[in-house]
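Next comes a concrete protein, fold included:
___
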Amino acid sequence: MPIYEYQCQVCEQQFEEMVRHAESEEVHCPRCGTDEVSRLFSLFGVGPATGATVDSAAVGDSHSCGCGGCTCGRA
């Protein structure tokens, strides 16, 4: 079953829900219980292939996320 992201139109809570058919299944906000929710556009992540490694020397000082909040230790 796919996981969709939603936002409540009443309390603005963002949440994820596993649904069989996004168009036909009624989704309720876990905070306030309303069914007035909007499905959000989501990004997805893809991890490295099994057995793949990252060469830390290749990464070097090219780190440039700039967010200051990641857990890479270089922020």
Notes: DSSP finds one helix and three strands in the chain. The first helix runs from residue 56 to 59. The first strand starts at residue 3 and ends at 8. The radius of gyration is 19 Å.
